[in-house]
Amino acid sequence: MLDYRSPRLSGRNRICHLATLVISTCAIALAQSAQAAGAPHANTTKRDIASAIRSEVAALGLKKAVIAVSVREVDGGNSVVSLQANEPMVPASNMKLLTTGAALLGLSPNFVFRTQLLRDGDRLVVVGDGDPALGDPELLAESSYVDAQGIAHTGMTIEHLLQAWVDAVQATGMKSISEIVVDDRIFAREGPHPLWPKDQLDEQYCSPPFGVNFHGNGLRLTAAPKSGQAPTITSMSPSAPWVKIVNKATSRTGKNDRNSMWVARDGDSGDLTIYGNVKSAYVAPIAVALNDPALFLSQCLASRLANAGIAVGRGRTAVASDDAPRGSSVGPVIQTPLSVVVTRCNVESQNLYAESLMKRLAARITGTAGTWTAGAASVKSVLTQRIGALANAFVISDGSGLSRSNRVTADGMTAWLVALANDSAVGAMFVESLAVGGKSGTVRKRMKDVDPAIATVQCKTGYIDKVSCLSGFVTGRDGTRYAFSVLANNLVERDSVAKAKKLQDRVAKILADALSGRARPVLGG
To answer: Which DSSP state fits 407?
Structure first.
């Protein structure tokens, strides 16, 4: 069985049985623990908060930037601060707050992604559900499992996952397989979003969602220098000896040399070219996006089945003319609860997770293959249902925020956060899916001056070129909570991104101090 433990929720786990691998955590806590008793925040008024935040914005000294700030009380939704908060802004990864919230509402918090292997005569069919976590190396690395011999292991790898299916096929007695078909038709095969940066499509964070995602839709390589020659590729995960690699990197180890290896992928063939320099052996791998993760999975299975003595005719992805998948289940059904996907999306800002959620929501709502267009319409529909006319200013281009065509308003963001936090079915799960300031995810090194005994900041960052955003919640020890959104665009001046981040952290600190009863000195304005 598999016992996966989340780094954010240590000690809480789900257990999967031999027939079902559950890549998950246990139920996310449904309520935030009460903290030590103390004075309420009666000493700080809304006017104090608004004045302090206005002073912080004025102190930035950024003449070209556009800054929007909104703060609301979660209990009642009353506005506390609204500065340029109806201005449409590029949100970057704050888009993930829209996508994950819409997915929780539209798919239901108990939704589970399911990927299974079927035997149909002499064929094997992998049936996908759009699960972005299938074979995610980070989740697997935090897993423990018991193998067929009853031996316990800690740290599952992608090879263990593939072997579980190979062992199950062997147990059926199959000696040969005519073909392995990966049915990924839950999503349309659209490739990268048309508005994503063209010069970054080789990067794993730009990998588009497929109906069958695999290993984060990326290959991971390490290398070591080889004196006078191209460096040695020391590992590839998953192992894929059929992938052609052209190694144009160098192994210079001089005083001024450094590690600078990078990998380019041919958009048609999937061949890889290694560039840069390898001065010392890589410990952390270099990732490159896969062209077609569904086809790659079929190749991985075929290769490992062949190594086990089972002949395989071919591997392919399903086409429109294929019948609906049928057959008997073979081996573990891989299941990932929505709560795990939403948390990984928000804490670690995983783009693949956000885009998969958007397309899966579209597939649920439309009953057809998920597409970019239908996904955007589905998220916009859920937004409109919850925040009404405030959603009119929103433009939904993608689910992750990579597209610069997305637009939100700060007032709309806080209205959305308030609506989600107050939803009895999804509110606690959504809030707990966010990174914690000074503790986890993309804000683990930020907001260190917020005393966790006084208040907790749970939030989502957002950054692309010239854009920096932060939205989320500040919750006091008595449970009183503010929703906030600080959106900064047109950050073209020197140090403007760093200044925008400082402003975001100061807003969180102002709210935390207000909740603690420690009124900040008002600087003016």
So the answer is: B
Q: What is the phi-psi region of residue 178: left when phi exceeds 0, alpha when psi lies from -120 to 50, beta otherwise?
A: alpha
Before 337, cis peptide (omega within 30)? no
| The pair of three-digit structure tokens given for residue 382, joined into one six-digit string | 């859920």
Contact between 416 and 386 under an 8 Å Cβ cutoff? The reply is: yes
Q: Looking at the DSSP assignment, which residues form a beta bridge with residue 245?
A: 272
Cα 164 to Cα 332: distance, rounded to the nearest angstrom: 7
Phi-psi region of 26 (alpha: psi -120 to 50; beta: other; left: phi over 0): beta
Cβ-in-10-Å burial (0-12, 13-18, 19+) of 76 comes to exposed
Three-state SS for 503? helix
Quote the pTM value.
0.90
Q: What would the 3-class secondary structure string for 327-374 be?
A: CEECCCEEEEEHHHHHHHHHHHCCHHHHHHHHHHHHHHHHCCCECHHH
Q: Give the single-character DSSP code of 173.
A: T
pLDDT in tens, 41-93: 444 688 899 999 999 999 999 999 999 999 999 999 999 999 999 999 999 99
Q: Which CATH number fits domain 2-27+110-191+292-337: 3.50.80.20, 3.90.1180.10, 3.10.20.30, 2.60.120.590?
A: 3.50.80.20
Half-sphere exposure of 215 (CA within 13 A, CB side): 29
Architecture of the structural domain at 31-84+434-525? 3-Layer(aba) Sandwich (3.40)
Interhelix angle for 410-421 vs 95-107, to 10°?
30
467-476 β-sheet, strand order: 79-83, 66-73, 481-489, 467-476, 455-464, 435-436
Residue 519 host element (H or E):
none
- d(C-alpha 73, C-alpha 481), whole Å: 6
- In 3D space, the residue among 475, 481, 421 whose CA is nearest the CA of residue 73 turns out to be 481
